[in-house]
């Protein structure tokens, strides 16, 4: 992303989650703050025309994926808290709203929002604009994954490396260099037993069939022209192997079939995810 301005993809995916609240029934991801967090003007415009983001026939697939990855991360977070997680680190948080609807009593689950400093500043301004008070159980940790280590950024924010922690990392890996992605995953692998991470990633273009490849190319051109080109892609089998080698004891990949069975079965509207991205869970 460009150094001097907040991520535009962060606003875009937040708008997709807001559109999901307005358009899709039943909702896969129920987020009562989704509409407010996009800002007053964008919320009014979206309410007036909830399909304003449907620029191509592929748009509903993207909305479905953005909703499903958040649902999966928060379902796994709930399991993680039952296993003893007391910190939730949201990596590349963008306009994620979990901290502002944290269902746990204060003192149970401390949330760290880690993001590029410019996006984080924009979010803090947005929270002020829309009148959301910062909860006591939230700490912001500005980190540029390309130039700083996650460990340094978290330690400076008061993260306790001795506590069982759940991490989510949604919609970010594709924007980084592969080595930066692996460095963050290695850092998570050193968290105490019981810790875990859910993240999504893009499939290597070399594994796509021609139809998938042309959808990939069209989307890649769009994000590159917005100044946030895709840079990292993975082969699910190799990534699984690498995560095990880092020390994760349990690794589970969710491809489109698994995600569609889990969250989009028997829908009347046909909403489902497409084939370009997977969601990975890895537990220490
Ligand atoms: C598509 S948004 C996803 C936001 C959020 N996770 C969500 O799902 O709504 C990508 C996020 O990655 C962050 N990001 C991109 N490059 C980064 C970097 N080098 N260091 C830290 N964060 C970065 C952006 O600031 C932005 O918040």
Q: How would you characterize the overall build of this protein?
A:
The protein is of the alpha/beta class. A 7-stranded mixed β-sheet has the order 3-2-1-4-5-7-6, with helices on both faces. Helix 1 crosses helix 3. The longest helix is centred in the first third of the chain and has 25 residues. It starts with 7 loop residues before the first helix and ends with a strand. The site of S-adenosylmethionine has 23 residues, from helix 1.
What's the structural blueprint in terms of helices and strands?
Blueprint: H1 8-23, H2 34-37, H3 40-48, H4 59-83, E1 87-91, E2 110-115, H5 117-129, E3 138-142, H6 150-157, E4 165-169, H7 178-189, E5 196-202, H8 210-225, H9 236-246, E6 250-254, H10 256-263, E7 277-283
Helix pairs in contact: 1-3, 1-4
β-sheet strand percentage: 5-15%
Task: Profile the largest sheet.
Answer: 7 strands, mixed
Provide the gyration radius in Å: 18 Å
Distance between the ends: 30 Å
Question: What attributes characterize this protein structure?
Answer:
single chain, 284 residues, alpha/beta, 7-stranded mixed beta sheet, 10 helices, 7 strands, 14% strand, binds S-adenosylmethionine
